[in-house]
């Protein structure tokens, strides 16, 4: 049979999937979700140890959220984003209260849009508030980081596979290496490695010309790119470098926001704040699509002016601040707070990592078990001393075997084509010890 004649299971075009591998296969159709469990149409049950795409923080099947959505939909389903309704204003208020600093919230629909928005905000901010002679438009981000699929967010992304075929991306983007303690030079301590990567960042800003650099865009901890836990000195060091050169700092907290790393927000772990933050996944736990770009007061103030000055933020998202999504998001974050889900995530994440280290720490294919809160990466290698990445084919065998045993596992994106060797475990934050044991 030629590739063109292959029998496809249906007419759905799935993301990041080579459909020829689905020929003759009937992928399971999920019909129900409850807690950490998914059930397919044949009654098979799976633990979703990826929480969707690390999104469903409060777990599946929350009737109280469904009730809020239904009520809001009946009352007022949609409103133009320039207009005002209770759910939208209340959700923005709630977010800035949770963050604990004065800020304004711009809503959109996806993490990509939230980052795209942050990039545009940073550029316009500098244009309106920068020093004479400056032309700050460049965005520095990091290899292995993921920021989204739209042109700017994709260009900021540091993973080759996500960009192959779609380049050149947007102009004005520069990448630096992130700390990767497991693969640091053997002579360096983790802290020294962090300092080395900071020097690299600083030199990049200098060589690009600081007066051309608008912002550093980064996840506090690289998540989908392989769970790269930064050295303790790194995140704070980035903040200091940004301040030294008048560069804004944008934290992409699309994954790390709302409890995933064991605290409500990822940046709190490193005691460092950005100028602009982006959130999505855990913001409404996937019950509705919604994202937010949160700008601190000094950024927002840089957009104030007389009407004719055109200093306002000149972007609009038809579905940004969707009333139902905001009502749902509000209920979702209340649940995360009321049930103290970040703390449960921390407990279960620590428990998971200690169990995995106990059971598999000496396994010849396990290079390192690392993570924070309820996000764990297991770096798989074919040779422990040479740290040779396990081949993608062998990793696929692992994830397929896990699914056949009722466990949905994640794996990192192909940061380099053919090199994809970190297993990702990030179940909903409601996971309990028994379910964690099962994943182990
Ligand atoms: N930023 C990070 C850190 C992500 O992991 C993702 C998605 O996985 C995005 C941004 C993009 O979000 P979305 O897929 O909602 O556009």
TrEMBL record:
<dbReference type="GO" id="GO:0030170">
    <property type="term" value="F:pyridoxal phosphate binding"/>
</dbReference>
<keyword id="KW-0663">Pyridoxal phosphate</keyword>
<dbReference type="GO" id="GO:0008483">
    <property type="term" value="F:transaminase activity"/>
</dbReference>
<dbReference type="InterPro" id="IPR015421">
    <property type="entry name" value="PyrdxlP-dep_Trfase_major"/>
</dbReference>
<keyword id="KW-0032">Aminotransferase</keyword>
<protein>
    <submittedName>
        <fullName>Adenosylmethionine-8-amino-7-oxononanoate aminotransferase</fullName>
    </submittedName>
</protein>
<keyword id="KW-0808">Transferase</keyword>
<dbReference type="InterPro" id="IPR015424">
    <property type="entry name" value="PyrdxlP-dep_Trfase"/>
</dbReference>
<dbReference type="Pfam" id="PF00202">
    <property type="entry name" value="Aminotran_3"/>
</dbReference>
<comment type="similarity">
    <text>Belongs to the class-III pyridoxal-phosphate-dependent aminotransferase family.</text>
</comment>
<dbReference type="GO" id="GO:0005829">
    <property type="term" value="C:cytosol"/>
</dbReference>
<dbReference type="InterPro" id="IPR049704">
    <property type="entry name" value="Aminotrans_3_PPA_site"/>
</dbReference>
<dbReference type="InterPro" id="IPR015422">
    <property type="entry name" value="PyrdxlP-dep_Trfase_small"/>
</dbReference>
<dbReference type="InterPro" id="IPR005814">
    <property type="entry name" value="Aminotrans_3"/>
</dbReference>
């Amino acid at each position: 049979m030629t590739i063109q004649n292959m029998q496809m299971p249906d007419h759905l075009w799935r993301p990041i999937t080579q459909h020829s591998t689905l020929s003759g296969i009937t992928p399971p159709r999920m019909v129900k979700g409850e807690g950490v469990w998914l059930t397919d149409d044949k009654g098979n049950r799976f633990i979703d140890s990826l929480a969707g795409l690390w999104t469903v923080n409060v777990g599946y099947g929350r009737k109280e959220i469904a009730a809020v959505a239904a009520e809001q939909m009946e009352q007022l389903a949609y409103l133009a984003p320039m207009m005002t309704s209770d759910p939208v204003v209340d959700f923005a208020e709630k977010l800035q209260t949770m963050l604990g600093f004065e800020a304004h919230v711009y809503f959109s629909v996806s993490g990509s849009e939230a980052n795209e928005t942050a990039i545009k905000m940073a550029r316009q901010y500098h244009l309106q508030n920068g020093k004479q002679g400056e032309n700050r438009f460049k965005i520095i981000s990091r290899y292995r980081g993921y920021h989204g699929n739209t042109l700017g967010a994709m260009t900021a992304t540091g993973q080759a596979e996500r960009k192959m075929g779609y380049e050149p991306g947007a102009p004005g983007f520069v990448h630096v290496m992130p700390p990767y303690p497991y693969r640091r030079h053997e002579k360096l301590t983790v802290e020294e490695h962090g300092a080395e990567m900071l020097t690299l960042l600083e030199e990049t800003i200098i060589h690009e010309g600081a007066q051309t650099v608008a912002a550093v865009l980064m996840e506090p901890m690289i998540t989908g790119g392989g769970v790269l836990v930064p050295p303790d000195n790194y995140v704070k060091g980035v903040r200091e470098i940004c301040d030294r050169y008048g560069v804004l700092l944008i934290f992409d907290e699309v994954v790390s926001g709302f409890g995933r790393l064991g605290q409500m927000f990822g940046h709190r772990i490193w005691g460092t704040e950005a100028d602009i933050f982006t959130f999505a996944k855990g913001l409404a736990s996937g019950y509705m699509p919604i994202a937010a770009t949160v700008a601190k007061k000094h950024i927002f103030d840089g957009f104030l002016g007389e009407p004719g000055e055109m200093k306002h933020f000149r972007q609009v998202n038809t579905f940004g601040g969707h009333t139902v999504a905001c009502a749902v998001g509000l209920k979702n974050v209340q649940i995360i707070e009321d049930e103290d889900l970040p703390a449960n995530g921390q407990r279960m994440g620590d428990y998971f990592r200690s169990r995995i280290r106990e059971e598999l720490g000496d396994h010849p294919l396990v290079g390192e078990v690392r993570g924070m809160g309820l996000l764990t990466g297991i770096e798989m290698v074919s040779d422990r001393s040479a740290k040779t990445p396990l081949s993608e084919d062998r990793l696929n065998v692992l994830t397929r075997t896990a699914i056949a045993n009722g466990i949905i596992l994640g794996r990192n994106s192909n940061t380099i084509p053919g090199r994809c060797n970190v297993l990702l475990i990030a179940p909903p934050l409601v996971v309990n010890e028994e379910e964690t044991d099962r994943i182990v």
